[in-house]
Amino acid sequence: PSAFARFATGSPLLCCGCAGHQSALDAAGSEADATSFLFWILVGAGALIWLAVVGLLVYAIGDRRRMWSEDAAGKLILWGGPVFSSTVLFGLLTYTFWLMPGLRPSIDSALRIEITGTQFWWRVVYHKSPGPPAISANEVRLPVGERVEFVLRSDDVIHSFWIPSLGGKMDMIPGRTNTLPLLANRAGTYGGACTEFCGTSHALMAFSAVAMMPDDFERWLATQSSPAATAPAPGQDLFMRHGCGSCHRIDGTEARGLVGPDLSHLGGRETVGAGILPNTEETIARFITEPEVLKPGTRMPSFAMLPPEEIRAIARYLKGLR
Ligand code: CUA
């Protein structure tokens, strides 16, 4: 953690919400470092100005006997009003502009991660030549120490992509492509969220961002661009027979649907349902049984009419896809 975060978390009364896996003040990336530093500069400058104004106010209230000459009062208003305010604001504005190239560096990244927001989940595609693109969903993985270019789009309404611990947020706008460079400088799992109201389950549109050591990331990415190695499972037959493959894709099978999240390596993800449940056989089975309860407004229909043992078999098969 940064010195600021250590200070902030060491003083619970001062700032109890600064640490954690989803905090812009507990920076784990260079863009987040710059914004959290700017935040503390603004807090410091704001505190000094507030103290000066309150000090003058107390002085003016407490010292009624000393009448200020009109000349002195006029000078105070002139220098304390327009001159002081413009100097401070100009200084802070200059500093903010000076930071901006660091927040939006032009990059020629070897790794591009294309993320498409859709009600209420994330399509994630990794592009790194010479390998084929790797398709995934609802989880973002990136190597530590390498600036990655996020390419952000939307399929339906405006969403917004934010991993507070790694950097600033960026809107995902239908018909537009936005890019956001981010560099993680500490390995770990960080929380990400949709930060633009996009419908009933906006608050349930989250994801994990996992920053990995570069070698681990390369190994992981290689597994993602090929089918999961699994033994034939009864759940696979059921998945295909009940038509799940018309909405979901599983690499290496006849399931090629693109309406819902790609499930090719679902078993290796941290969460189910775009960040809302831990990833276990039970939660997968629950999502198949009552998607509308867990995520109101989802396009996934309920499969509660299937016998429970069939749902369990499908969940076991999906959890085994790593
Ligand atoms: Cu997507 Cu809010």
From TrEMBL:
Domain Cytochrome oxidase subunit II copper A binding: 108-223
Membrane topology: Multi-pass membrane protein
Protein keywords: Copper, Electron transport, Heme, Iron, Membrane, Metal-binding, Oxidoreductase, Respiratory chain, Transmembrane, Transmembrane helix, Transport
Subcellular location: Membrane
GO molecular function: copper ion binding; cytochrome-c oxidase activity; heme binding; oxidoreductase activity
Gene Ontology CC entries for this record: membrane
The keyword Heme belongs to this UniProt entry's keyword annotation: yes
Catalytic activity: 4 Fe(II)-[cytochrome c] + O2 + 8 H(+)(in) = 4 Fe(III)-[cytochrome c] + 2 H2O + 4 H(+)(out)
PROSITE patterns in the record: COX2, COX2_CUA, CYTC
Protein name as catalogued: Cytochrome aa3 subunit 2
Organism lineage string: Bacteria, Pseudomonadati, Pseudomonadota, Alphaproteobacteria, Hyphomicrobiales
